[in-house]
User: What shape does this take?
Amino acid sequence: MNDIELYLFTGPEAGEKEEAISNIRNAAVKKNGSVDEYKYYAGETRIQDVVAQLQNASLFTPALFIIFRNPEQLKGKADLETLSQWAKGSAKSSPNTLILVSDENSVDKKIESLVPSNHKKIFWEMFENRKEQWIQGFFRKNGFSVTPDAVARILDMVENNTEILKSECSRFFYCFDRGSTIQEDDVDKILSHDREENAFTLFESMADTSKSPVQRLESSLEILQKIRMSRESNGVMVIAGLTYCFRQLRAWINLHSENKSPTDAQLKSAGFAGKKNQERYRNASRLWTPGAVTAILALLANTDVSIRSFGTSMEYTSLFKLIYSVVIKNGRFFAEYDRS
Assistant: This one.
């Protein structure tokens, strides 16, 4: 008997996760001829509505392809029963595909138990040595070569995962002729001078220990404004980037609490390659305690839900409150402005 078309992809590595989703999409199109694709978010769309859509045949295409993000938020009995009834019932004979996608490492065990074992995978962040290989392979595949020093510099400047690495590395293909070898100086020219503000530069500003809290707030809000004015403006993506940074900060703090002087190899294997990257998290660890980091991560999650619930009309206000709470109040949410 064929497995039901229900998948669960978790973990922080977005690039490989998106590649896996693309492969399933291509297979669904090949099998059905065409699919109608939809994307939903927990907290924004009820799982009951998603299941109802899966149970109804499409009027124009033979199959549906639905991506449902943040399933870790599904904890209510009604939500779990709805998904369970579909997975154990009509899903067995349905051509429709449902992919549950989370940046967390796990979701409710009852949800995990519904997914065939070969349809679920945790996409861990790549170790630094794999990122080096990935960058070299990406340049080679596109007709370029890159020096080891340039690879190290890219990893020092670019955060997160292969999805962001792909976007940043692609810049070189527009600036150099095919067959060129990218040097370390080229990386500084392209990524430093021509780089747009994003969640990672925002985090760096929030963690700048050379400035007072008020100065950090001012510079961070300036960066936020630049992000909002860019074509890539997306509050949810800002939250996702900051969440990654503070999870990395938590890992940095834990690593140094277990081993007060971790070796370069230990730092590199934990995702802290490059002096600039290490200095960034060293500074941040001086500003925020483990308890504060936990509070900030909770605040980020609440802000994400708020933005998804109320839409773009309240996005700036939600992000402003978030940055103020993190920089000025170390993660404690405020109900009204402080008066000094």
Q: What stands out?
A: The chain is about 55% helix and 10% strand. Residues 336-340 have pLDDT under 50 and may be disordered.
